[in-house]
Structures are given as C-alpha cells and as structure tokens.
Amino acid sequence: MVNHPVLLIAIPLLTAFIIPIFKKYGAAIAGGAIAFNMGYAIGMFSHIYSNGKIYETIAGFNPPVGIFLAIDALSALLALIINLFAFINFVAIGKESNYKFSMLYLLAIAGSTGIVITGDIFNMFVFFEITAVASYALIAGKKDKKALEGAIKYMVLGSIASSFILIGIALIYSQLKTLNIYDIAARIASMNANIKWASFAMLLTGIGVEAEIFPLNGWVPAAYQGASEGVASLLSFAPSKAAIYAIARLMLVVFPFHATYEIALWIGVVTLIIGELAAFMQEDVKRMLAYSSIGQMGLILVAFSLASQGLKYALMASLFLIVSHAASKSSLFLLSKSEKMYGMAGKYTGIVSVLSLIGMPPLAGFWGKWYLMLSAMDEKLWYVIILIFFAGIVETAYFARYLHRSIGKDGESSLRYKAAMAAMASFAIIFGLLPLLYKIASLPLWGG
Amino acid sequence: MLDIIFAELIVAAIITFFVREKLAAIIAFFMSLLPLLALLDWASNYGFAIINLGIESHMKIYLAGVTLHLAITPLSWFFALMILPLFPVIMLFSYSFFKENDGFFALMLLSLLATFGILLSRDMLSLFLFWEMMSWSSFLLVYRSKDRNAIMSYLIFSVFAAFAILFGIIILWHENSSLLLSDILNISGKPGFIAIASLITGFAVKAVIMPLHAWAPFVYSKCDESFVAFLAGGLSKLGYYGMFLFLFSLKGVDILQSYMTNVSWNYLLAVFGALSAFFATLIAILQDDLRKLLAYSSIGQLGYIAIGFGIGTPLAITGALFQAFNHAFFKAILFLTAGIVAYRTGKWKISELGGLAYKMPFTFMAALFAIFALAAIPITSGFAAKWLIYEAAIQQKYVFIAPIMLIAGVGAFLYSFRILYGVFLGENRHDNVEEAPKSMIAALFILVMPLMIFVVFPGYMLDLMKPALQAAGMESIAHTKFAIETSLAKYNSIAVLITLMVAMIPAFIIYKARKHRVTSFEDNYLAGEPYELHKPSMHAANNFYKPLKKVVLPYLEPGATHYFEKIYNGIKCASNAVRRVYTGYVQDYAIYVVLFLLFIVGWLIWI
Amino acid sequence: MDMIGMAIKIAILIAYAIIGTCVGLLFMGIGRKIIARVHNRVGPPFYQNFIDVAKLLSKKTNISHGWIFDLALLFSISGILLTLLFLPIGGAQLLSMDGDAFLVLYLLAIPALGFALGAGASGNPNAGVGVMRALVMMLSYELPFVITLIALMIYYDTTSLATIVKMQSIDGIKSWAITMPPFMIAAFAADMALQGMLMEQPFDIPVAPHEIASGPMVEFGGKYLGSLMLYKAIALVAETTLFVDLFLGGGVVMHSGVMAAIINFFVWLGLIFLLFVLSILIAASFPRFRIEQAFGFYWKYEAIIAAISLIWVYIMVIK
Amino acid sequence: MNLATLTLPCYITVAALLSIGLYGVISKRNLMKIFISLSIMETGVNLLLITIGYIPGGTAPIENANFAKYVDPLPQALVLTAIVIGLSVTALAIAVLISYYQKNGTLEYKEGMKW
Lengths: 448, 607, 319, 115
Prior knowledge:
Number of helices of chain B: 26
Number of strands of chain B: 5
Structural class of chain B: mainly alpha
Low-confidence stretches of chain A: none
Oligomer: heterotetramer
Strand content of chain A: under 5%
Radius of gyration of chain B: 26 Å
Mean pLDDT of chain A: 86
Distance between the termini of chain B: 62 Å
Mean pLDDT of chain B: 85
Shape of chain B: globular
Strand order of the largest sheet of chain B: 1-2
Strand content of chain B: under 5%
Strand order of the largest sheet of chain A: 1-2
C-alpha cells in the first residue's frame, strides 16, 4: 500500500495539471493533493523505517536502462520533511493564493520530492528543473520589482546550473553508459580520472547553485527578499534541502573520495562564515534570514562531508541540522510577514526557532551542533571547530538583535497562519526530543 | 521519585504558563519545594539525618536516543543547598510582584529544572544539555526586559560560554572516549590544558569574572528584580560549580599547575578574581542606579570566590564555598529589596530615593543585615568567609592578590553605605509609601535566616561542605561549632558576639540614663524655614562620591564593555566587507559560478 | 577553677575597657593643651574632656531622630570597646587569641558604620557629606596600611596580632619590627595611615568644622555627642595600640612576672602617648588637605612606599 | 573514419557554444541578450549529449526491419527532455522579462538589491 513512492511525485504532478481545469477550487484540490502526499510520505517513511529500503522501477524497464526510484530511510525522511512542511506551509498561505500559485506549488513539491527519492541521475536533473522552473515562477509571482529581480537572478544562475548538471551527466554517461546512481557508484573507479573530476566539478557547481553554497548563491538573498513569505518559506525547506541531499549523495555514494570530502568540507566552512557574516549587518529581515540560510547550508554541508568519512555522529548531525533548519527557517520566514511578532504564538515561534538555530537543547539544532562537534573532534579539525564556533557567535548576535527588534505590537494575522507557524517551529522541539533521527542514522543507508 | 520531581517541574511549568499570576505563584511555590525535599532526604547520605523518604539518588533519562546519567554527589548537594532554596523564596516574593504573569513562573520553574539537572548530571552531555537549558530559560526571562543591551549581551555571552564549555567537553570526550564524568581520568598534556582552560573560560562567563562580566551590568539592571535575585544569587554559583567540578573534583587543577611553566596557571584565575573584586568595587561605588550598583557589587563579591578557587588550597576553597553560600543569600536579599523599592516607589536612581527606612522598617532591617553580610562585618557570616580567603592568600604569600582584595573589602563599605544612606536614610522623599506586602517581607526574612545561623555557628557551614571537600580529596580545616582555626590564626565567632553583647551594656546604660524626644530633622536643621526653600540642597545623595569619582574615573575608563564593543564593530566591518561580494549584478554571480567551477576542477585535477 | 579563671579574665577585660576610656580622654585633653601651646594659647586643662563628657551625658534635653539614629550611640561605644579588647595591650593578650589583625581591621568598621547610620538617619545633608568624606578617607588610608600589614604578616607567617607581638618581643626592643630596614619604611607609611585613622590634620577632612559644621556629628547632642566623644577617645587608644602592636612589639620589653606586666603596661602607655603626640604635632603644623589630595597622597606616594617595603619583605621571605 | 575525427569538430563546436553563451551572460547588460546566451549554452550542452551517444556509422535508433548498428538511444531521449525543459525555461523567462519591462520600462539590467 505505501510502497509505491512514485505516487509521491505522480499525484502532485497530475493534480497540478488538473488544477487549471477547476480554477475556482484550485487551492482546495492542491491542498488535498498535498495532504495526501504528506500522509503517504508519513506512511512510506514508517514502512521503510521498519521494513527497509524500497526499490521501484517505472514502466517495467529495469535499471540501468529504466527509470528507477531507490528509497532508504534517509530519503524517505527527507521526502517526509518536504511534504510535511509543504502541507503546513500551504495551510498558512494556501487559502489566499490563486490557482496558478497552487499549481506551481505542487510542481515545486513534486520536483523536490523527486530529487530526493530518485535513483537516476538524469531524473534528478529533470526534477531539479521542475523544481527550479516552479520556483522561478513562484518568486516572480509577487510581481513587484524586487520579486522580478530575484526571479531573474535565480533564473540566470539556475539555467547555467542546469547546463552544468547536464554536462556533468553527459560526461559520466560518455564513460560508463549508465545513469543509475548505484551503477555509477559501482564502476566509478573505471572512469578516466580527469573526466571523473570534471564531471564531479560540473555536478557540484550545478547542484551547488540550488543548494545555496558559496559562491554560487548570488541569487539567494535577492530571491528570498523578493519572494512572498510563503514562497520564501517553501524555498527554505524544499529545494535547498533536496539539493543539499543530492550533493550528499553525490559525495557519499557516487564520489566517495578524500578529495571530494576535503572540498565539501572547506566549501561548507567558507559558506558558513560568509553567510553568517553577511547576515550580521542586514537590516531587512528576509534578507538576513536568507544569508542565515546560506550559513546553515554551509553547516549542513560540513556535516555531510564529515559523514562521508564514515562518522555516524556526523550523519546524525546533518539530519538534526536539516530538520532544525527546515523547521526554524520556514517558520521564521512566515513570521517575517510583519516587522513585529504575532502575539504570543508568534513570539514563542520566533524564540523557539531562533533558539533551535543557535543550538539550544533540547531542540533539534542542539543535537545538530553537538554531534557535529563530536565528529569534527574525531577528525581533529581544530580550525573547523573554531570557525564554527565563531560563526555560531556571529549568528547569535544577529538573531539576538532580530529578537529584540521584533518585540512590540502584534502584527495582524489569521489564526490559521499563526497555528501553521507554531506547528512548524514545534517540529524543532519534537525532533529534538524523539530518538527518531538518532535511530535513522544507524540504519543501513546509501547503499545500492 | 526523582523522575517524578523532574516530570512534576515540567508539568508545573506548563500549567503556570496558562494560569493567572497569583495562582501561578502558589503552584510554583509549592512545586519548587519538592526538590528541596529531595535535598533534605539526601542529607542522610552525608551524616545529617533529617527526613527519610527514600528518594533514589540516581536516575537515567532517555532523550533523543541518548542516555543522561543523573546522580547526587556531595558537591552537587552542597551547591543545591545554596541555590535551590532561592526558588521558593522568589516565587513567594513574586506572589504580589507582577502585574501580569506572562510566563515568568513557568520559566522560573524551567530554570529550577535546569539547575537541578546541572547539579545532578553525571555525564558531560547532560551537564551541557542542562546548562544550555538554563541559558535559554534565563534568556527568556531576560527577554522580558525588552532592553536591547541586556538581550543581546546575555544571549551572545551565553552562547560564547556554551561554545567554550562544549569545546572543553569534546576534547575531554576525545581524550577519554567517554562522556561519563567518572571515566574522565586522563586530563593531561596540551589537549587537557586547552580543555580545562576552555571550560574555565566558559564557566567564568556565568561566574561573572572580569573581563567576561560585560553582560552582567546590563542584565542585572534591566530585568525583573525577582529574577535577578536568582541570576546573581544562584546562576552565578553554577559557574563556580562547574569550575569546582572540573578543577578539583576531576583534578583538572593538576594540569594547570604543571603545564609548561613553573608558575601555576591557576594563579591567573586568582588574579582575574582579584581584579574583578577591585575594579567592580570601585565602579560600584560610583553608580547611581541601585540595580547597577548591586550588579557591580555582585561582580566584586563573586571575584572573591574566583580568588579562592585560584589559590586552590583547602583553606581557600573552604572560604570560597562559604563566600558563595553567603553571597547567594545576601545578594538575593538585596536584589529583592531593590525590587520592593521599585515596587513601592517606581524608582531605581539612588539620588531620587531617600528616607525609606522609617516607612519600611522590615525591609530596611533585612537589607541592613544583608549589607552587613556583604561588607563582611564580623557579626555576620560574611566575615568568616572572607577571612578564610584572606588567610589562604597570606598562607600562600600571594602579595599581589592580598592587598587588592583587602582594599576591595574596604571599598564594599563605601557602596554599602551608599545604599543605606541614599535609599533608606537621609531626607524623606516619599510620604505615601507603605511597607512592602507581607509575602515579600516573608521572603526576605526566610533568606535572612541561614545568614543568622551561620553568624553564630560558622562551624556548621564547614560541616556542610565537608563531604564535598572530602569527595575532592581535600581535608576540611580544623573547626568547632564557633571557631575556625588555621595555621596562621583563629577566629572565634562566639567571642566576638558575646563581647559585643557585653559591650552593649554600657552603651545601653548611657542610652537609657537620660530621656530623649524624637524630632523631625526639618525642625532642627531648617529652624522653621519653609522646606521648599531648601529642597534642592537637602539631599546629599546626589552624586555622592563626587571627589572620589573625579580621581578614580579616568583610570576606570574605557572599561571592558568598550573592548567588547570594539570586537562587535570589528565583526561589523568584516560583515560589511564580506557582503560586498553580493554586488547585486547577476553577471558577477555568473562569473563566480564559472570561477568556482574552474577552482574545483583545478583543485581536483592538479592538486 | 575554670569559673575563677573566667571571672579573672572578665575582670581584666573590664579593667582594660575602663583604662582605655580614661587614657583616651586624658590624651585628648593633653592633645588640646599641646595644640594650644603650639598656637601660643593657654588652652583648656588636661582633664577638660572628662568634664565635657560628663556634662554631655548628664544633659536633660536630648534630641533623637528615630531608632536608627539611636543605633549610632549603641554601636559606636560597643563596637569600639569590642575592637579594643581584641588587641593585645602591653603584653596583656585580652581576647586577641580569638581573632587576628583582619578581624580587628573589620571590627573597626562596626562603630564607624553604626556612627554613619546614625548620621545618615539624621537627614542632615552635612552629615551625609561628612560620612562620605570619612568613608573615602578610609578607602584612602587603608591601602598603604593594608600593604604594610601584609608585609608583616608574610614575614612573621601569621595573621594573629598576639603572635606578631610575641615574636617581636623575643629579644626585647632588638626584635621589634621597626628595627628592620624594610619595616622602617613600612612604619612610616603606617604612621601616615594612622594620621588618617585618627582624623587629625591634615586629614581631618570628614569633620572639617569650618566647611561642613563638624560633618557627621552635626545633628548629635547631649548623650549622643557624649557617646561619640567616648568613641573617639577609645578609638584613639585602639588605633595607636594597633600600630604599637604591629611595629613596636606591643610595648613588650620583659617577659614574666608581675613586674614585667607593670613595666610593659607603662611602656605601652608611653609608646601610644609618643605616637599620639607625634600625630598632634603633625596636625598642629599642617593645613587640611582636600579629599582628592588626600586620596592621591595615600594611593600614590604612600602606597608606593608601602609596596616597596612589601616587595623587600617578600624577597627576604622567599630567600 | 574513426570516432575521434568524426566527433572532434562536434566537441569544438560544443566548447565554442558554451563559451559564447557564458561570455554573453557575463558581458551583456540586456536581459534578453542574457537569456539568448543561456539558450546558446543549452544548445551546446544538447550537442554534447548527442555527440556522446554517437557511434560511427550508426543509424537513428528507430526500430525497423533492417537496422543493425544504431546510435545510443538514451542521449537522444535525454536531449529531447532537455530541449523541452530549455524551452519552458525560456518561455518563463520571457514572461518574466515582459513583467520586468512593464515595471521598469527597460530590459537593461539595473542594479537593485545588493549586499
């Protein structure tokens, strides 16, 4: 029943194309589809969590030729997070939106989920493009100058990125004649070294644009600043998380070499520092949060790169960081609708989110930082530890300023909006208390 | 039973969050008594059988996949005895203190939970976890103040402290491959030194040792006094608890004494303690805001504990723990008094206050007693504590530290009198002020009691800390109920007290021999002239220590805060430089992408 | 047996309290006389202060300003007596085995604080200013004094005054601390501090009759003022005795026997008298400092002098 | 003729198209030109895919009676997908540019949100 992951992609895609027919009920239909998706993702996750991985081939062609979905507990978790937050986010903003928005929203969700659960590198590219195109349109949907500028920046960089991804895929295919990730991983050693590195560089650059790593993230501040709150929230948990997960798979499964680990580690650290420093001086809340997102993505990348060294703690760290960042940033972006907080709910949403981001227990962010430190210590990365500490303090400084500034009269908002915000932030607490992520990290993962 | 206490605190926190403030105060008061019950029950472990409920002395908590080990130790028992009683008292005090609840009691209960957790934790993860919990629950209480400097400085310094502690912890974890405190046997070499130094730095933030004190004046002077009473009285002691734990219980002091040099690095701690005692006292003397004065006085008094730990002999540590205990109580009293004053008059500036002693005699009496303890007048327990530290410094021949802290002790008289004169004595400026509500007075006098007991019986205090010292492998110093004896001298509290009582007799005879009548000072001083005419010149408390200020102030500026601001501005500059990367031109971003690609390819292929 | 010892001890304590009071009042009278002679006046008789105190204490009209004001009376007399009894006086240990120099230092604060409380409670601004000056003076002179004290303590490796006196009296005058070069310097600094402690010119800033109407004492009259005069008299004895104990072997020149006790007593009396006269002579020949000047004097020059002696002693001890 | 001599010109063309595209993106201020450059890049990438799948002497991978040697069909499928995607991106881009033009009255890229 819950072992057909393809439905996670198919349902939102099909619904998205049905919506233009029933314009008036677009939001409702979309809401139903996302709710179904969320339910299905939860079911599938619990199924995989207890029964192990699922492989699904599409249309009867077996890998390496056919399209192939491979889902372990980790990708199921990512799919779960994406769909869950997508649902909550849609609860907050869905009703006010028109059918076009709902359609694009569904496409973005389908694409992000697809990136996570696919086992085929070209499929991944296609899903990237679906996500990206939907995101461009969603950002531009606000139709003011800033939104258009953000969308254009994203589009230009996204298009370059897609070209690079495609080149990377082409290079791999030229050597190995396969597109299946696990097939590639098995035969990566037989590749010509130069082409291997070139293809890795191309893929990293291409996906890195989506994953907001420095210096490929020029679009990020503009896009987040330009987009409406709901869209910014969506961007913070769906495409970026899917992309960072794609990079992680690339690093851990396809190119598990020391050189790639080092590159990812240092890029992660640089991204972290630059993002946090750039956020430090921001006056615009959304732009500050965008830079902060960049920093967090750097941190997650550091965690994943350490995980590629086979450190169990690092994998846990990355999971906790992803969850913490998704929960906190999405709620903070929703909160950024007004300069001030929305009453009690808004106040505590903001506080919980910020505390999770700066790593206070028992919130998810704390475990992220804790395990990250343990694994960095295992590798004796003194400088990395110090730099992360430094970035953490800078982050604390601007979030403290943010918290102080948002004290004041309540902003106007509906109960639904507030509840959604609070629900998102509450996942930082829930995942911080439950041993779920801890256990996932010790399951057999990544394998083909 | 122990797990019930933890669960009960969480539930109570949730309930008090939603109910009205009076009811919340009552619930919080009774709920915060339960941990004390556990403490009394555990007292039988250390030879003070009081009650026997059979509360288990250790437990495990399963959280997010890890196991937290909790157990009571002699050290944590002693510190709990000093910190936990503050909570019910503060709840009692706050019964009529707040206009709106707004989560105060819930957060205080969470702080209590975190404090309890810190004290009970037997592995470094739970120590850190509860420590951070403490940080955020107290941060949220600071957040109520809505003051920019308080919020920012507290959060930033808390996180800095947390990172320093975390750094130390992970190094120790890596060296010993275990998080359990009982497994930490190997603190040696460079990693051990770095770990201990880093831990001390982290704890020093909460222990408010200069120059890491910069947050304290802001926070202490802007938050609710009933919370600050805990912050100054209780939270700062947790910093010293952490120091004691890693320095003496786990023998981290050995690596400090033997690493690379002949001079013990531990001495540095004493020096910083002495400097904070000295400078904070001088700054406190010059303050006009009552809460700021108390804040700096706190920093100064806490400095003595740091000196005690820095000297590191059993004598010094005994004195430091004694001082910590006293400080917890008298500083709580003083901040609560400040709260009462603000509650009744709405003012904090000493120059705007005056003459409250006759209006609120009970408040004044409690404050007077606390001030005597603070100034270490020999009829209070404050003296015994400082005396032990002085003795230790002389014993070790610390000729730099000893005069500095002695003169800081004299400085304490100056600001003590500033509080007494400016707030309670001098010209009467408030005609319509009543004595504080009964619950507040009760809270004050509950806090006075332990100070009273240890006035007469300083030996009891040494008995209380004996298990903690023995657990750290230290001999308790020779003492009886009344007297403490060191290799240098002896202090007999009962001799002082009895002699004072006897010496009171002639004084009392003189007092009673002739009658007197009470006259308002206006009648005397103004000789019938209208009061309004003289009003501007009446109050001497305005800019009280002006001559001293003129001499001293140039040497106190620019102060530590200035340097932290410089660091902040430095980061601002860095931030400004970094964000120029995001030029806003999409073409530039495209160039970055290409350069990045080339860089990666270059790295991979040619390097 | 023990009861008898106890009773004797109590009797001795009471005797010394009375002696201290009388000696103090006597000295004050003599001091007035000396100053008058220096000023080329006749001056009051040497027993004038006894008469003054008796007159004040027997006054029928006394004005109080409330119960805190009364604390001044109670605490100033009892506190200073307490201090006096914790000092070894001329070979008699009194209670000095139950305390030490730090205790005495802090005991001196009890009467001062009580006095200050009463002055503050009077509500007179002049009193407030006077107390402020007194406290700042205290902060000033304590620094050099404390440094010299620590020099002595680390040299004799004790903080107990009784032990310090004992160790100085091993060889009679030859083993007095002041015979050693570093302690000569220290004694100079400590004597200057003593001048401040006694509130004599040039350090009589707190009372400064012409500026702030006798400062803290402005609202005191009758039995209150009388008790303050008693306090001042005893304080004079206590403070000079402290100096004698620290640097002049407590006046102890002989060891055992009744004869020794009597001689020691008179040597002590002579020494504190000399100190007092010295201070009076200085007072008679210098004008008053301003408070900033006094503070600077003590914290700059005096503290450096004291620090030199401390460093000297430290080097001696380390070797 | 061997594979290399046949595909080399194609690779050179790919490199040329990519460089031209990138140069256009980097140097042009007109947004329309930028997107045209991006399309050129995409063409280059598509050509690369085709070239990779090429086998000397192969026919189109369409099943009929008498084919024996055919080029790799997968890249061609990929290219079809890529072209569709490229088209949709371009269409969206033009829609956004129209909006941009309506708001700003120009297609020249103006410095907007920065730092």
